[in-house]
Description:
By secondary structure, the chain is an alpha+beta fold.
Amino acid sequence: MIEVVGIRFKQAGKIYYFSPGDLQIAAGDGCIVETARGVEFGEAVLDPKDVPVSEVVQPLKQVLRIATVEDYERLERNKVRAKEAFQIANEKVAEHKLPMRLLEAEYTLDESKLIFTFTADGRVDFRELVKDLAAIFRTRIELRQVGVRDEAKAIGGLGSCGRSLCCATFLGDFEPVSIKMAKDQNLSLNPAKISGVCGRLMCCLKYESETYVDNKQTFGKSCQGCGPIVADEFYHEVEEESDYYSDLLKEDTIKDVDYQMLLETQEIDKLSKNEEPKRPRPRKKKRTAKNSGAKGTKPESTPNEGAPKKKKRPRRRKPKVDSKPKDE
């Protein structure tokens, strides 16, 4: 076991382990540490604790000191300078016509390095851009290309639930998400409904995945057309099995009200099993003229029954005769 303290460099960034040494560090304290990028400012989010050596990435570096007032003032100045550097870098990117999008700029605490984060569809030749930026800022320039999930984490936004993105608020690291998790949760496989603002599968599909897997192992899969399975809280039995209520009445954890209800349910269950189902009476056939005759005899037929009806001829109208004679 080794004593470490967890330090985070961004609001929802990954937690890194450092050795506290002889310093009295508590969660929420600002710390100055040395990383691969240089001397940086970080915030302690985990109190000093003992962890196995296998969980620590060697070599384990030590916290230099607890942040002072001067360190906080220097940090604020660097943030203001980083915003100005970001605007200048955007102009240079447009000037060189590079297919890239800058996300943020960041100074290390000792101002020994200026780091730009960007996204692009493919590889970008930014050597001329680095030369121009180094001539302007007179410091070491580093350009880092990240993916679409890191882009959403850096910019932030609102998800389909109406809340801030999980990756931008509390997720320290991205966990793998598969389409099988959406199938296990009976979600629509429409990409527009299960994808986040980054275009990848939503990180929240991981939250309830283990719960659905446990439920399927306990209750089994439901077949098509089958109703929901009601399982016993104590024995995991199906409610329709025999002696379900009599076994349930033996439990000591059942309250008085539930006990009375179970007694009534047991009596109703016994009565329903003992009673024979009543057969419905056959409906009487209505007597008609055809059925009224005796067997073997044909029913009396009315005259002209079944014969086609004759069509009536239309009357011909007589032409009108003029009352006046032709001579007149």
